[in-house]
Amino acid sequence: MSFVLDASVALAWCFKDESDARAAAALDRLSSTACVAPAIWGLEVGNAVLVAERRGRLTAVEAMDVLSVLRDLQVEIDQTPQTTVFGPVLAIARAQQLSAYDAAYLELSLRRGLPLATLDARLAGAATKLGVDLFRA
Q1: Please, are residues 118 and 124 in contact by the beta-carbon 8 Å criterion?
Q2: The pTM is what?
Q3: Mapping DSSP to helix (H, G, I), strand (E, B) and coil, where does residue 137 land?
Q4: How many structural domains are present in the chain?
Q5: Distance (Å) of CA 135 to CA 50, 82, 127
Q6: Is position 72 within any domain?
Q7: Checking phi first, is residue 56 left (phi over 0); if not, alpha (psi -120 to 50) or beta?
Q8: Which of 42, 39, 44 lies closest to 107, judged by CA?
Q9: For residue range 121-136, what is the model confidence (pLDDT) as tens digits?
Q10: DSSP per position, 3-40
């Protein structure tokens, strides 16, 4: 079964000190199914890797290797129209006290009826409140 992939899960794959069983299970699931992420996903993950490189957490070569692996995964990027971004996404963000970025993942889960794979406790809590299933191994 497919799922919505939050950046927090993908970033746990990039840094050894952030490894997590749920993230490992999501990566394992990608060997047999695709996942989906909002258009912000690539920018969010790419920025976190860039910041990690700037702070010396990754070398430039390690950063490029990580991004190469992520690029080859079965991640479908949802092309959400502006009407959805400026409508339901912001409404969810406002109602759940989330950033618009986090609300984009939640809105996508709601719209597609897919579980959400996240390590973000606040986002997971909002998902649970709205009846969105969380990804389980």
Answers
A1: yes
A2: 0.92
A3: coil
A4: 1
A5: 27, 27, 11
A6: yes
A7: left
A8: 39
A9: 999 999 999 999 999 8
A10: -EE-HHHHHHHH-GGG--HHHHHHHHHTTTS-EEEETH
Q: Report if residue 136 sits inside a domain.
A: no
Virtual CA dihedral for 71, 75, 79, 84, nearest 10 degrees? -130
**Domain encompassing residue 92:** 4-129
| Domain of residue 29, CATH code | 3.40.50.1010
- The answer to whether position 91 is within a domain reads yes
Query: Maximum CA pair distance of the chain?
Result: 41
* pLDDT tens-digit map of 77-130: 998 888 878 899 999 999 999 999 999 999 999 999 999 999 999 999 999 999
CA-based radius of gyration for the chain: 15
Alpha helices in the chain (DSSP H): 7-14, 21-29, 40-54, 60-71, 82-84, 90-96, 100-112, 121-129
Closest CA to 61 of 43, 49, 73: 49
